[in-house]
Amino acid sequence: MLKTLVPIALGLTLTTSAVAAEPPTHPDLAISLIGPSTVTLDSGQPLSLHGKLINRSKRTAHRVVQPNDGSEMGWREPHVFFSAERKTDAGAWEQVKPLQVGRCGLFAFDWTQDVVSLPPGESLLLKDWLPSVERAVDLSQAGTYRVRMHYVYRAGRSAKGGGESMTVLPESLADMSAYSVTSKPMTLTVRRPLDLRLTLVGSPRAGEPAARVVELSLHNQTKRARPVSELGRGARLHFELRGRGSAPSFVTDTRGEVQRALAPGARQALALPKAATWDLSHSPEAFEIRATYYRFERGRIVETIHSNWVSVAKSL
């Protein structure tokens, strides 16, 4: 992994949303997605999408659990999350992997306080404690995707805290069986106007400057100029090791935001700072890395671009 002179917040947990086999589908509840009817977006562009849990019964009220802190991770009831499939060149649909999420380990473990009755025909908004789609699943590659929202109640057997330890439910919830609800898919098209390319040019050694090992460049694949920023001047970089929970490394943004126009078909190299060195203390002998480029405007992320994965074998 890469090491920079940036303090990492204590208590940060890098993890993916806990997904297990879903319980049976609820006969009366449904999820309706709320968002744009036609979606075409650039890779890394934010997508505003949420949903509502609807009681379709005409006579029966159903008890449901309102999402709270930790629901997005599956640490408590209910587990509310997005899934996605990408259409392959052969026309088949393949599952898209969930992304790692960095957050603290504290959460609202007592989900029994969030149980409410949902009357017939009424709905519950599913918006809070839900990450944006592009931060939940990997939509980095160009193509056609199908996105679904899931609401899963496991009767207290969630992934953390007040879940597995709650083997006996309160008497008031004893007859509330586990169930799942999945929305109909929303189809969206992702374009990749800027391509971030990661190239391995050497074998990493402990303490060696990262610039001697990898090269990074942005490529404008469109027919019009695109705004770009240099690292440390309106852009940050994050290196990720596949399948490992190591802390991210960021190139800090300390000198203000400076943009330039990258001409159609043009390439811009991203210069890594000298302070970025290899820390191999917790890395296996061989691993994969990729980079993520974040561009800021007025202090907010406006563009996120993932690079290709590169296989690395470290040198001793």
Helix content: under 10%
Provide the β-strand percentage band. 35-45%
Mean pLDDT: 82
| pLDDT < 50 runs, ≥5 residues | 1-14, 161-165
Global shape: elongated
Largest sheet: 6 strands, mixed
Tell me which CATH architecture of the largest domain applies here.
Sandwich
Rg, Cα atoms, Å: 22 Å
Secondary-structure element sequence? EEEEEEEEEEEHEEEEEEEEEEEEE
Describe this entry's structure for a reader.
By secondary structure, this protein is an all-beta fold. It folds into two domains: 13-190, Immunoglobulin-like (Sandwich), CATH 2.60.40.2970; 193-313, Sandwich (Immunoglobulin-like), CATH 2.60.40. The protein has one helix and 24 strands. Strands 4, 7, 8, 12, 13 and 14 form a six-stranded mixed β-sheet that branches. The longest helix is centred in the middle third of the chain and has 4 residues, at 133-136. It is elongated, with a radius of gyration of 22 Å. The relative contact order is 0.20.
Describe this protein with a few key phrases.
316 residues; mainly beta; Immunoglobulin-like; 2 domains; six-stranded mixed sheet; 1 helix; disordered N terminus
Sequence-ordered SSE layout with sheet pairings:
Elements: E1 2-3, E2 13-15, E3 29-34, E4 39-42, E5 50-55, E6 62-65, E7 79-87, E8 93-95, E9 101-103, E10 115-118, E11 123-126, H1 133-136, E12 143-153, E13 179-182, E14 186-191, E15 194-200, E16 214-220, E17 226-231, E18 234-241, E19 259-262, E20 267-270, E21 277-278, E22 286-297, E23 300-306, E24 310-313
